Amino acid sequence: MLILIALAAFLATLIGGLVALRFKDKLHLILGFSAGAVIAVAFFDLIPESVEMGLEFYEVGTITSIIAVGFLAYLVLDRLIFLHGHNHEDGHDHGPEAASKRGLLGAGSLSVHSFLDGLAVGLAFQVSTQVGIIVTTAVLVHDFSDGINTVNMIIKSKGGSKQAFRWLIVDAIAPVLGVTSTLFFSLPAQSLSVVLALFSGFFLYIGASELIPESHHAHPKFLTTVMTILGAAVLYGAISLG
Fold first, then answer.
1. Residues near 108 by beta carbon (within 8 Å), at least 6 away in sequence
2. Per the count of CB atoms within 10 A, which of 31, 87, 106, 216 is most buried?
3. Residues 89-126: pLDDT tens digits?
4. Which structural domain range is residue 10 located in?
């Protein structure tokens, strides 16, 4: 099953990038839906699961603190290491060479990002099949948006379509490597509860600080807000029925 999921992650990223290369006017609606989906997974699945698994080992306050650490840690990675600028311009013209470097750094950071998504899927299946399927759903919609962002990062940084496609392939392979890596190790329940709490913080940051702002950027906020709520509602329904 993990092999099929890895393939699905590859295809989701690839399709997202190809859509970005072809269609540009409707992407904000997809990103809005994606934001609601990943936030819903954190609130309605990962956090309750991490609390339930961890109660034998930790206080609830400890688990929620780990969630906060995950959120803040991802913020630090995003700002200081990934250099993922959310495709926003800084208002200064640094020249084509500087723009190209920003694009390469951004695309590289998104590939690391996608590897972590794959890792989250593999570890979620170590908890249970149900948790694995729910996390996979969120990761697939996020990988789709990652494919979009990877292409946009290169195109907006003066790169060509061929360069954008090459980075899209790298980004599509990254979650496959992340999922595959979890076939070679497993974690006890005590550690898995901490990992789920950390990934809850990661997903909250991704949804609130990346996908929502990107979906609203230069687009009417009413429709994107509706799509975000719809994304959360669909995932809530899927989790409740699971």
1. none
2. 31
3. 444 444 555 445 555 666 676 677 678 778 888 888 98
4. 2-241
